[in-house]
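Researcher: Hi, I'm a grad student and pretty new to this. My advisor asked me to get structures for two proteins we've been looking at. I'm not sure of the right format, so I'll just paste the first sequence and hope you can take it from there.
Model: That works fine. Here's the first sequence with its C-alpha cells right after it:
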Amino acid sequence: MERKIHVFDNGLKVYNDHLTHVQRQRYKRHNVHEAEEENIFNNIIRAIPANGCYIDIGSAIGYYPLLAKRLSPGLIICAIEPLERHRAFFMENIALNGFIQNDFIIYNEGISLADGEAKFVDEAYGSSIQRNRNKEHSVKTYIKTFLSFFGLQKTKNIITIKTITLDNMLKRIKKPVDLCQMDVQGFELDVLRGARHSLQGGSIRTFLIGTHGKKQHQGCIELLNERGYMIGFEDCYTKEQPDGILVAGRDINILDHCCPK
C-alpha cells in the first residue's frame, strides 16, 4: 500500500504517518509547521551567508533542516536529534524531498549541561531529557506509580542517550554558527548554560529559540542579554503555534531585517 504524503504550502514533503493528529489539525488552518516562527526562519536563512552554518537542536523529523536546504542549498546544515525513530523519519524525508544524506550532518546526542549520559523521555514530538527529581517522592508521584502498576496509566518510555554541551558540539563542528535554532521542550536554559564559552566569544551569531513557558522564556532573554546578545523579537504567547519565539543575535542588521516589527 502506497504511503500518504503531506505536502506543505512551502513545497516541503513529509510522510503523513510521521505526523500526529494534533499536527494534522493545525496544518488545516495554516499548512506550515509553525506559522509564526517559519516567517522569521525564512528571513534569517536568506540573510545569513549562502555558505554559512546552521544548526538545529531537536530537529525531530527534519522539517527545518530540509526547509533550510531548499532556501539556501550551500549552507552547512547540522541537525541534532537524540531520538532514533525521528532520525529514521528524517532519513526518509531527505530522500522524499530529493536530497541525499550527505547534504546534512546528523548527530545523535542530546545537548545538555554536561557531557555524559541522561535519561530521555520518549514522547514523540514532546520528547525531552528527564529532569532530576528529589529523592523524596511527592504524593503525586506515588499516585502515578500506583496507577501504572495496575495498568491505569501508561508508563513513559524512558531511554538512555549520550549528551554533550553546546560548547563541545561547536568544537566538533569547527565553524562559527550563523544560526542556532532549538526546540528542546523546556530545556532551553540548560542548552545555553552549556554554551558559556561560545556565547562569550560570539561564535553563535543568531539564535532562534522555541520557548516553553514564561520562566524559560524570560530566563533565556536575561542570559543572552548578559552575554552581549540583542533581542530582535520575543513572544512568549504565540497565537498560531504551541511554542513561544525568541530571536537574539549580535548583528543588528540581521535582527532588524528578519524580525517582525
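Researcher: Oh nice, that was easy. Here's the second one.
Model: And its structure:
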Amino acid sequence: MGEIERGAPEQPGQSAADEPGSQLSLWPVARDRETASAAAGTEAAIPAEPVWTLTDLGSFVLFVAFVSLPAALVGTAVVFFGLRQAFGWEITMAEAFTRVPVMVAMQTSWEALWLGFLYFTITVKYGQRFWDAVRWTRGANRPRNWLTAGALLALAAQLFFYISPTGNDLPIERLFTSPAAGYVLAAFGIVVAPFIEELVFRGFFYPVFERMWGFWTAVLLTALLFAVIHVSQLWGGWEEIAAIFVVGTAFSYARGKTGSLVPSYLMHLGYNAALFVSLYFSTNGFRELKG
C-alpha cells in the first residue's frame, strides 16, 4: 500500500462536516475580505472587490431610463391589448394605465429588466457567479433577527408619524382605491420590491461606492439613491422622504458591516411586510384609505 499523506491531526470528536465551509446552509457563510483575497486563486473564490465599475453603474442608469422603461411600457401595452381583444374589455389603453394591476404589472416587468441587466453584466461581461458577486451570503446572525430589525424599524417610523402627523396627501395613498388594489400593492411591496431594490442598490451600487469612497460615503450615497426612487410615490411628503433616507441608511449600514446582501434584504422585507400588515389592520382590510 502507498504511504498515507499526512495532514493536520484530527481533533477528538471533530469530523469533516465540522470544518468551515462544509456546513449545510440556505446561504453560503459570508467571508471577509482577507478570506476572499486568500482564496482568490481558487475557482470558487469570491472576488474581494466588485469587478464591475462606475461606468457600469452609469450604463445601468441609462438602461433603466432609456431602454427598460420604454420596453416595459410597450410590453405591458401589448399584453393588455391582447387580453382586451380576447375578453372583449371596453376599457381604453389610457384608462388601463391608471388601474393598479396594470401599473404594478408594468413596474414589475420594468424591474425584471433591471435584474436582467445586472445578471448579464456580472455573468456574461465579467464571467462571475452572480450570487457570489453580489454577496448573497447569510452573514453572522439568524435570518429572523434581520427580519425583526426591519419590522421594528417600520414600527418606529409609524410611531414617529403618529406622534407628529404631517397630514401630507401622498401619491402612493391615492393608489389604494379598493381592497383588491391594496392586496396587489402589498404583494408587490413584499415579494418584488425588497428583492430587486436590494440587488440594485446594496448588491450592485454599494460595493463600487465603497471601493471608491469608503464605507460611510457608500452607505449615505446608496441611501440617497434609495430615497430618490421613492420620491414619485411620496411627492410632497418631505418628512416621509427623509424617513425613507434614514431607513435606507440602516439597510446600507447592515450591508456594509456584515459584508453580505442578505441582512439588508431581510431587513427590507421585514420593514415592508410590517408596514403592509399594519396598514391592513388599521384600515379595515384596505377599505378606509384616502384612495
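Researcher: Is there anything I should tell my advisor about the second?
Model: You could mention this: The chain is about 65% helix and 0% strand.
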